[in-house]
Amino acid sequence: MVELNPQLRKFVESISTAQKEQRERAETKMPAAAFNRWIDEMKVAGLARSDAECARLLGVSANAMVTLKKNGSDRRTALACRALLHRMAPFD
Fold first, then answer.
1. What does pTM read for this prediction?
2. 10 Å Cβ neighbour count for 16?
3. Is 62 helix (H, G, I), strand (E, B) or coil?
4. pLDDT (tens digit per residue) in 38-75
5. Distance CA 15, CA 5 (A)
């Protein structure tokens, strides 16, 4: 196996890290900060009084809500959050 010089190895590692971060960003469509802002906006709009009520409206458990607040959500949940905030009815 060929051993890379330290500078080249560091460069390759930085590319790998950047690619990993890019994949993670692509998988998370709604960052945690945006999800938490959605909760605040639901409360300000009078659509929910608590985080628990937001969870109920979103159809997730309390544990899932904690995870979403910490890690953000996928695209599907982000779209559901937008629909709830804009008082959209489910698609029939």
1. 0.69
2. 10
3. helix
4. 999 999 999 999 999 999 999 999 999 999 999 999 99
5. 16
